[in-house]
Design goal:
Radius of gyration: 23 Å
Strand content: over 45%
CATH topology of the largest domain: Immunoglobulin-like
Largest sheet: 5 strands, antiparallel
Number of strands: 12
Number of domains: 2
Shape: elongated
Distance between the termini: 53 Å
CATH class of the largest domain: Mainly Beta
Length: 173
Amino acid sequence: MLISRTVALVVEGQTRGDLAYFNGTEWVRIPIGTFGQVLSTDGDVPQWTTIAPGISGKYRFANTSPAGGPAVVLTVPHFFPFTGYKTVEVNAALKYTQTSGGAISHEDFYLRVLLTSTGEERPDTRVASIQKQGVNILAEDALTFSQSGTSLLMSMRFAAGGGVEYRVSFTEA
């Protein structure tokens, strides 16, 4: 004889969208996260985490002398707070056309670095790969990071004018 029984799981304070997990002793309520958060764990306990979205775009800037090259500051909202480190990967394809002579320079730039929860680079984690044809458009040390509130600011300084297409991605380290 098959007996069927339904048991309702009721967790104190439950509301629509909540989740529940078993902590080894009892069921615990996790309130619904906010926009932009993903469910992750800190080992064996689920929690909501805000992960900065990847960004991409294009910039065009005027030709300038190398000494005072143009700078672009990218703002990545909702990057902070977090604990530990985040991996930041930057891929940029740069193109510079000289106005006299029409020579075209290309540079493909890749950088990976670990950032701390205060926006500082973890020492000895910067890995860069630069392939260029022609003038140096962006040097490895021309890309810096800083924190402004919950946002990450990335500043890129260029030695020559032209255009840049960039893609930046983030992962928890």
